[in-house]
């Protein structure tokens, strides 16, 4: 799939690092769930977002025993559902139809990770960048919004903060479980013009990772 090319590039870069890596690197994969939300205008809270998914590759560079920089390249889907109610010429309800809109993103967080002493717990924080690959509606639905809705932007930028725990499997392998919040700070558009305001994202994530020390 074309929208996975960036992930393949990420895997290739990690493979290149593997070829010349020292023991202060870790590579890994992660999968997870996301729950998006919007803020910034008066109707934002009524958006009917559902649980979506993500997966990707990670690279950890260990600065000190308890401090590292973690970068990821993830493919992420966000899901929104909506319903259209149809009326006849007598203003009587004649039917209804449910739709879902799927947003596909490449998500790139670069986080500073701190491990709390000898405990398995850690916290991380840093910026993220989202690039919108596509947005599509199922079943297909055409709506003429020309001039009534602000343009949806391809880029989303903000800051992430997360907390989690690591489970060592052996000297080199470990699992991580993390709760992370991506807090967008720029307007991503797609707002009815008569409403005004902006659309800023906020996405809660549950992420499971598998990591290999090099």
Automatic annotation (TrEMBL):
Keyword Signal on entry: yes
Name the UniProt key words of this record, in alphabetical order.
Answer: Signal
- Keyword Signal attributed: yes
Q: Which Pfam families does the annotation name?
A: OMP_b-brl_2
Superkingdom of the organism of origin: Bacteria
Q: Which Gene3D superfamilies match?
A: 2.40.160.20
Stored InterPro entries:
Beta-barrel_OMP_2, OMP/PagP_B-barrel
Q: Secretion signal: which residues?
A: 1-21
- What is the official name of this protein in its record? Outer membrane protein with beta-barrel domain
């Amino acid at each position: 799939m074309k929208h996975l090319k960036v992930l393949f590039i990420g895997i290739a870069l990690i493979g290149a690092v593997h070829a010349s890596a020292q023991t202060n690197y870790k590579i890994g994969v992660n999968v997870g769930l996301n729950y998006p939300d919007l803020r910034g205008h008066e109707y934002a809270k009524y958006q009917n977002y559902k649980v979506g998914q993500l997966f990707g590759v990670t690279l950890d560079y260990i600065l000190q025993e308890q401090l590292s920089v973690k970068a990821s390249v993830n493919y992420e889907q966000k899901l929104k559902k909506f319903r259209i109610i149809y009326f006849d010429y007598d203003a009587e309800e004649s039917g209804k139809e449910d739709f879902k809109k799927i947003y596909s993103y490449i998500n790139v967080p670069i986080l500073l990770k701190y491990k709390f002493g000898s405990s398995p717990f850690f916290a991380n924080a840093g910026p993220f960048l989202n690039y919108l690959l596509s947005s599509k509606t199922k079943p297909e639905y055409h709506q003429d919004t020309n001039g009534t809705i602000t343009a949806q932007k391809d880029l989303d930028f903000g800051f992430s903060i997360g907390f989690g725990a690591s489970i060592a499997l052996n000297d080199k392998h470990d699992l991580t479980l993390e709760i992370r919040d991506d807090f967008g700070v720029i307007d991503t558009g797609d707002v009815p013009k008569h409403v005004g305001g902006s659309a800023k994202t906020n996405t809660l994530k549950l992420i499971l990772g598998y990591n290999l020390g090099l």
